[in-house]
Amino acid sequence: MSSRSSFAGRLSHLPGGMAAVAALGAAALVVTAGVVLSGTPESAPDASIEGVLRSYSAEPDAAWTLDDGTLPGMSGPATVAATDGHRWLISYPVGIKHEFMLIDARSGEPQWNSPVDAGFGDCSINDRRQIGCAVRLRIDGPENGFYLVDQHDGSLTRTADGDDTAAVLGLGPDFVHVNQSGYQVSLRSPDGATAWSRTFAGAAEVRKAHGALIVDTSDDAHHVIDPADGTDRISCTQCTVDVFESGIAVTDTAYGAESVSFHPFTEAGVSDEAVGTARRMRVLRGPSTLPVIAPAGEGSSLDAAGHYEIVDPATGDGLWQIGDPELSKANARPCGRVLSVARKDRSRVFFDLADGARRGAMPPPALDDPDAAIDASSCVGASDDVAVFANPNQLTAYDIDSGAQLWNRTVLGSARDVDGYIVLSEGATLTALRPN
Questions:
Q1: Which residues are within 8 A (CB) of 377 and not within 5 positions of it... i.e. 6 or more apart?
Q2: Could you tell me the strand order of the sheet in which 414-418 lies?
Q3: CA distances from 167 to 129, 178, 257, 382 (A)
Q4: Which fold has domain 2-34+41-433?
Q5: Considering the entire predicted model, what is its pTM?
Q6: What are the tens digits of pLDDT across the range 252-282?
Q7: What is the sign of the dihedral through the CA atoms of 392, 395, 396 and 400?
Q8: Each residue of 217-255: pLDDT tens digit?
Q9: Which InterPro entries does this chain map to (predicted)?
Q10: Which residues partner with 178 through β-bridges?
Q11: DSSP structure class, residue 137
């Protein structure tokens, strides 16, 4: 194990008293021996995890809106359950049941004459573009069981017997099933053959990361699972697991033991060995392609000033860092492929995450325009030249190269990035905004 005890790069002073350090490491970064990767790891399959948007340089119009006039019987908020290119699977409640409709994301047009009623079950799409549904506790219609859905007309073909599946996630050629209690997770083929099954101590939620399966449980445990046999590649408690473009970051949040370890994506999924560990550091939350880490806990030598480092999870190497007493310690915002850092006077500067190149600067927000302050907003995503942030009242877009506000839009709900599109959930409507 080697430790880097001083900045390796050249300090260059930037306007406004900020200093950026272009370095291959930092005092807090401890690099450990790890897996040597050949070639370039593939991008994470779900681009929305990284907050990478299509272009929204001007205020966007609604491309389409789904409501109870489009989705029969809709009685509550709709969500995007799964995507497959321009095919989006929409989940929405009808009373206490879950129904699903396939739409064309370019137009919002339903692709089936009627939705699939999964009852208390769930539907998803696997990597073979098969739509699978666990139908559970139906009073009428198809009996309980697992069905494949014809993508053209929505007709059902039963492939496995009924069970108590409540949640489904497509993973590779198979489907992950979570049972009604939430404690049992299994991987099954479309015809119902079980590859493995595990019972967890807490209720489980499942998500994907580059072909691996992440299971987050209600008792604050997290498991990165090998889909081949269901064994843990990585597991932890009192931690968080964040997915980035080239790997994952596992943050130990236990008081006094705060640290971040980096695990690259490999052809087999995720490496179980960390290629780097940053002691007394934490990951800043927000959708971005690379992790931004900052001091955590008491006693850090860096906690007296705003200090941030950008790390490549594929190698564990620090790419660059920035630190200055005039920087805010709380208001940096990773967003897509950029980072917005704040000074204590609330002015801001954008930097490219990959190399630390300085982009645009922003003056402090006006006192009479609190909605324009990024401090109180979260990142929705960013394109090459525009970053979009949201607060409970509105969306605001900024030109990354000038820092100028480009547009804002009132929002009565929430906004998220779905495959590069901004999607609004407002009451019982789901709206996709048209890129420019």
A1: 333, 389, 390, 391, 396
A2: 62-66, 429-433, 421-426, 414-418
A3: 18, 5, 34, 31
A4: Methylamine Dehydrogenase; Chain H (2.130.10)
A5: 0.87
A6: 999 989 999 999 999 878 999 999 999 999 9
A7: positive
A8: 999 999 999 999 999 999 999 999 999 999 999 999 999
A9: Quinoprotein_ADH-like_sf, WD40/YVTN_repeat-like_dom_sf
A10: 167, 185
A11: S
**Pair of tokens at residue 383:** 């394109």
Report yes or no: 110 and 103 within 8 Å, Cβ to Cβ: yes
Question: Which residue in 311, 312, 333, 331 sits closest to 321, CA to CA?
Answer: 311
User: Can you tell me the distance from the alpha carbon of 244 to that of 251, in angstroms, rounded to the nearest whole number?
Assistant: 13
Report which of 182, 176, 177, 179 is spatially closest to residue 203, judged by C-alpha positions: 182
In sequence order, what E strands does 280-391 have?
Answer: 281-283, 292-295, 306-312, 317-324, 333-335, 338-342, 348-352, 358-362, 378-382, 386-390
SS3 376: helix
Decide: helix, strand or coil at residue 25: coil
Neighbours of 228 (CB within 10 A): 12
CA atoms within 13 A on the CB side of 58: 2
Please write down the HEC assignment for all residues of 54-74: CCCCCCCCEEEEECCCCCCCC
Contacts (Cβ under 8 Å, ≥6 apart) of 62 = 431, 432, 433, 434
Distance CA 350, CA 338 (A): 7
For residues 65-85, one letter each, b for 16 or more C-beta atoms within 10 angstroms of the residue's C-beta and e for the rest, the string is: ebeeebbeebeebbebbbbbe
Q: 53-83: per-residue pLDDT in tens?
A: 999 999 999 999 999 999 989 999 999 999 9
